[in-house]
């Protein structure tokens, strides 16, 4: 199997962008429906407040959400200010259920 690039972050952010646009279109549509069909302006007012909140949260998502690069300078140092460097312990994990099957394969198919 060939190695593939990780493009999941870009597609996830693109999907969130589409969800926000859909939310804005839906809220605009419902505001128009409330303005044309409701007997007073209270439902439309609530809908306009929801529209304002959706626009503000969409702008915050587009401007403040850091997804292309992580802020390592904020999360990497430990309490003393030293950079965190993970150490390799050399240990590996083997799932117990698979170790039993591996022993059977290595023994030529004979169950132990």
Automatic annotation (TrEMBL):
Entry superkingdom: Eukaryota
Segments crossing the lipid bilayer: 12-35, 41-61
Keywords, in A-Z order: Membrane, Transmembrane, Transmembrane helix
Protein's recorded name: RSN1 protein
Organism field: Symbiodinium pilosum (Dinoflagellate)
Organism phylogeny: Eukaryota, Sar, Alveolata, Dinophyceae, Suessiales
């Amino acid at each position: 199997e060939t190695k593939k690039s990780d493009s999941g972050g870009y597609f996830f952010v693109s999907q969130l962008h589409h969800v926000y646009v859909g939310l804005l279109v839906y809220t605009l549509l419902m505001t128009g429906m409330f303005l044309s069909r409701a007997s007073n302006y209270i439902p439309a007012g609530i809908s306009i407040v929801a529209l304002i909140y959706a626009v503000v949260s969409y702008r915050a998502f587009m401007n403040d959400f850091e997804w292309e690069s992580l802020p390592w300078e904020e999360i990497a140092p430990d309490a003393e200010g030293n950079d965190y460097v993970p150490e390799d312990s050399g240990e590996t994990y083997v799932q117990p259920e698979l170790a039993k099957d591996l022993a059977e394969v290595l023994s030529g198919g004979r169950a132990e």
